[in-house]
């Protein structure tokens, strides 16, 4: 009988802790960069962190690919991806030439 009571108490405690613990992942990781060269990404980072910026850039990439044969993938403008998304030497220029703002 004591084992059942102890088991029930353990499950109840685990349920309380799992429901009351804050979930940082649901809030999204903030953007690592603090200076932005485009308004699009600055606003996306402010709105929803890295997840929002990635979503916005994926949508933007499909538009840019249609306008420029030099922009094909994320790596066309970035030397590395998450978390810093470092730009290539001509990444910003390619972005703007393809119609990015």
TrEMBL record:
Q: What residue stretch is flagged as signal peptide?
A: 1-27
Record keywords: Signal
**What species is given as this protein's source?**
Haliangium ochraceum (strain DSM 14365 / JCM 11303 / SMP-2)
Q: What is this protein called?
A: Cytochrome c-552/4 domain-containing protein
